[in-house]
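Troubleshooting log. The previous structure file for this entry was overwritten by mistake, so regenerating from the original sequence record. Sequence copied from the archived sheet and checked twice against the printout by T.R.
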Amino acid sequence: MVTQSTIQNLTEQHHEHSVSIYLQTHRTNQEAQQDPIRLKKLLSEAEAKLEDRGLRKSQIDDILDEARQLVGTSNFWLHQSEGLALFCTPEFFEFYKVPLQFENFVYVDDRFFVTPLLPMLARDGSYYVLALSQKQVRLLDCTRESQARVELDDIPQSFQEFQEEFTYERHSGGRTTGANGGMSFHGLGDDQKEEQMKKISEFVSQVETGVTNYMKKQGDPLVLAGVVDTASMYREYNQYNELVDDFIRGNTDEKSDQELREEGWEIIKPKFLSVIEKALEQYADLSSTDKISSDLDEVVKAARYGRIDTLFVPKSKYRWGQFDEEKDTVHTDDQQQDGFHDLYNYAALHTLTKDGKVYAIEGDRMPEYATIAAIFRY
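Regenerated output below.
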């Protein structure tokens, strides 16, 4: 999971040949089979960039060998998210599977390229939906645009499977699953109803245990979906702090994965967007003061000298250039060239290392539709 400390650790790494690789990955088998090939091509591109920097083969191998090993590691590709980010130097190697869609991209500089990961800091990334009914249990790993089922081996996939695994005798006198995905006890006597309730309660408890064990490793918000009685029972057992108060009501058996994701997004959206929206409102409130700027030169200089409290940069955009500290001048160019960096990444790195906040957002949400914007400390 990518957290503030993850980004902080990446910003603190410094090597004259730091390689950052971003790859769009896929969950479906047909597309996923091509992902190792795509990574291999990106590694070849990284090798060419390092050769252009004058490095010998042995030096390049020291930087890229650990990443190369992933290409042929079949287990590594079994459970991918939307994107894969790799960071390589001779002394450092890390990778992150994240629920963000990246452009395939290789960046070689004296520091890592971190701006594509920044949406994770505002948790504008993944959330989960647990669709719970007696007929089917589904845990969905969701982003705003996609969803994928998570297969958990330690939870029953239905109440029927739970009964079979635990060798409960099924009552012949009634249904165990209501037509609305909830509880139904037609044809059962009082004692049978009590016994059936106990079984359902144990079923929900086992689902909660398996889901909570998984979710504690993810740390993302969890939205519950189900009829009221089933959802209430789950909450009684819940031990996961990030379970959202509101839930998706109704029979989940009648909802597709996409419908559950979309309804879940409507519930979770305020939680994701509130932090960014507050920062954007603060920028707007300061519009008539000198505590904000959308001028690239001014923002880059302010980032270098630790003046930025909050920085806004556009997603999937680059601005090549260099800050000449001796002349206190920012040079820019439409193309990458020797000695030039992505200035959005440059500003983000310096802001983060000075404990500032950085938000990577869509271009149409940028303040004043600018290419970069900042709120200053002073």
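Residues 167-179 have pLDDT under 50 and may be disordered. Archived copy saved in two places this time.
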